[in-house]
Amino acid sequence: MSKSLGNVIDPRDIIGGATLQRLQFPQGIPTCGADALRLALLSQNCQGAEIRVDVGEVLSQRRFCNKVWNGLRFVLGVLGDLGGEFQPPHPEQVVPGGPMERWVLSRLAGAVSECGRRLECLEFHGALAAVQHFWLRSFCDVFLVGGTPF
């Protein structure tokens, strides 16, 4: 694709959104935000110099960013700290209180290990996938919904 031909989407149109009339895109592009665009770029397994950005992938990453925001607000709300005063204990001081906490910490340790392994190989898409899998499938879907001690 060539900028001179006008067939390239400006990243600012993805971040801030663009109307159909301005962009001549089938439904326009909704506002996605810079974080969603960054995650969409990271999620690509690119072997060459070109990255094909799908607006649908950017929207999917926007939903993930929203899930992170909502999960953190929920946890901080339960801890009574939406004002930003909470200081987490040092990791060596964390003692799981029950089987569900041990389970989620084991899943977290696995995700951290996988993420580190992928980053060492410069496989950013794999590192992102490990983080997202933990957050969505273990932390939010299981721990917060069914087994949270909050």
Automatic annotation (TrEMBL):
<dbReference type="InterPro" id="IPR002303">
    <property type="entry name" value="Valyl-tRNA_ligase"/>
</dbReference>
<keyword id="KW-0067">ATP-binding</keyword>
<dbReference type="GO" id="GO:0005524">
    <property type="term" value="F:ATP binding"/>
</dbReference>
<dbReference type="InterPro" id="IPR002300">
    <property type="entry name" value="aa-tRNA-synth_Ia"/>
</dbReference>
<dbReference type="GO" id="GO:0006438">
    <property type="term" value="P:valyl-tRNA aminoacylation"/>
</dbReference>
<dbReference type="InterPro" id="IPR009080">
    <property type="entry name" value="tRNAsynth_Ia_anticodon-bd"/>
</dbReference>
<dbReference type="GO" id="GO:0004832">
    <property type="term" value="F:valine-tRNA ligase activity"/>
</dbReference>
<keyword id="KW-0436">Ligase</keyword>
<feature type="domain" description="Aminoacyl-tRNA synthetase class Ia">
    <location>
        <begin position="1"/>
        <end position="52"/>
    </location>
</feature>
<keyword id="KW-0547">Nucleotide-binding</keyword>
<dbReference type="GO" id="GO:0005829">
    <property type="term" value="C:cytosol"/>
</dbReference>
<protein>
    <recommendedName>
        <fullName>valine--tRNA ligase</fullName>
        <ecNumber>6.1.1.9</ecNumber>
    </recommendedName>
</protein>
<keyword id="KW-0030">Aminoacyl-tRNA synthetase</keyword>
<dbReference type="Pfam" id="PF00133">
    <property type="entry name" value="tRNA-synt_1"/>
</dbReference>
<keyword id="KW-0648">Protein biosynthesis</keyword>
